[in-house]
Specification:
The chain has 147 residues and is α+β, with helices and mostly antiparallel strands. It has five helices and three strands, in the order βαββαααα. The protein has a three-stranded antiparallel sheet.
């Protein structure tokens, strides 16, 4: 793949906001999201106008062999023409901007509770800690062998 200049490989790790530039992220933070999926990157590439692409799932980046992240193989000529970029970095930034826009839109329409209001969940779901507050003292004493 390294010698074929007609194809361009895009790994999902290039768009992960949780990794640093030295660890493998190749786009700015404004064009990256946490936990990018191959489907989301393919959607963003299609939104950018790239039509010739192939998904390769269950493959790992050579620097990250423990993570089966997947890659997207694009036609270089199609990617550069449709995004108007002149390099792989420009193509990745174009894809990343669309990916970030879609991530922000899905996050805002999640339907989560509005800021400042408490959720309507029950007490058991709201409190994850196990504490003895509000329970009768007798149960606690029995549990620890005291009278």
């Amino acid at each position: 793949m390294a010698g074929d200049s007609s194809k361009m490989t895009i790994w999902t790790g290039y768009f992960d906001i949780r990794t640093s530039r030295t660890d493998g992220r190749r786009v700015p933070k404004e064009a990256s999201i946490p936990n990018p999926t191959l489907d989301a990157i393919a959607w963003a590439a299609r939104d950018a106008g790239i039509t010739k692409m192939k998904r390769d799932t269950e493959v790992s980046h050579p620097a990250r062999p423990y993570a089966k992240e997947g890659r997207l193989i694009l036609s270089s000529a199609d990617a550069k023409n449709s995004t108007g970029a002149d390099s792989k970095e420009g193509v990745m930034q174009s894809i990343g901007i669309r990916l970030r826009r879609q991530y922000k839109a899905s996050k805002s329409t999640d339907g989560s509770a509005p800021a400042g209001k408490k959720s309507q969940r029950g007490g058991a779901q709201r409190s994850q800690r196990k504490s003895f507050k509000g329970k009768s003292g007798g149960q606690r004493k029995k549990k620890f062998g005291r009278r």
